[in-house]
Design a protein that fits this description.
- The relative contact order is 0.18.
- By secondary structure, the protein is an alpha+beta fold.
- Strands 1-9-8-4-5-6-7 form a seven-stranded antiparallel β-sheet, with helices on one face. It has a two-stranded antiparallel ribbon with strand order 2-3.
- It has seven helices and nine strands, in the order αβααααββααββββββ.
Length: 226
């Protein structure tokens, strides 16, 4: 009995460390998304594409040839469980091999003079031309929005990978059961926070969260290509 109680205590103590990403903590909220022009311009371009995507989803015959696979993925995913939806969306986007080098520079952002992603692709731009890691994450984010996930349940999270000493982007998803998952570019879906990842900042179409860019490794030890 004592051993069982100890195990239960240890499980309760360890549980918070298993959380992939904390959607409940608003302490890191920084600003509305409109305060970052490079990101918010992408949000507006995505809004302009909505009619094209809607027509394709309603009628496959209205899809451009390169867009038909999106119709199939969304149509087949609607009846799936949340777990299955995350798996199929993650793999669908990750199979696009048109990977380009990350585009980062010192951009005017609300958190100061730090190297950040300065170009983002919409879903249609990505499906046509490919992109880099944040574009893979943005494409997944936008498909999940098409499947009915709210903006409040999704964030694109930029992380620093301490193993590779590189910056990277993943999608954090909070489903209606309160389960948080991270969708990565290697088809992994994390239930807990990867030990090597340090959260830097996060965005969705409404907001920006600053998870402390200043906490990364010294600049001379950073590599910017993934």
């Amino acid at each position: 009995m004592i051993a069982m109680r100890l195990i239960r205590c240890l499980c309760l103590f360890a549980a918070p460390a298993l959380v992939a990403y904390d959607f409940s903590d608003n302490a890191d909220y920084l600003a509305p998304a409109s305060q970052w022009p490079a990101w918010y311009d992408t949000v507006k371009r995505a809004s302009d594409e909505a009619n094209v995507i809607r027509a394709c989803l309603e009628n496959k015959g209205q899809c451009e040839r390169w867009l038909r696979s999106l119709h199939v993925i969304v149509d087949r995913s609607r009846a799936l469980s949340h777990k299955q939806q995350l798996e199929i969306v993650n793999r669908y986007i990750n199979q696009h091999r048109h990977y380009r080098r990350d585009r980062r520079s010192r951009d005017a952002t609300p958190w100061g003079d730090e190297a950040v992603f300065t170009q983002w692709s919409t879903l249609l731009e990505f499906l046509q031309k490919g992109g880099d890691c944040e574009d893979y994450a943005t494409a997944k984010y936008m498909i999940l929005r098409l499947l009915g996930y709210s903006a409040e349940a999704l964030r694109i999270v930029v992380v620093y990978d301490r193993k590779t000493r590189e910056y990277h982007a993943v999608v954090a998803v909070n489903d209606d059961q309160g389960n948080v998952r991270l969708l990565d570019i290697d088809n992994r879906i994390y239930r807990g926070k990867p030990a090597a990842y340090r959260y830097i900042y996060a965005v969705n179409e409404n907001s920006i969260w600053d998870h402390s860019v200043a906490s990364t490794l010294p600049k001379q030890r950073q590599r910017w290509v993934r």
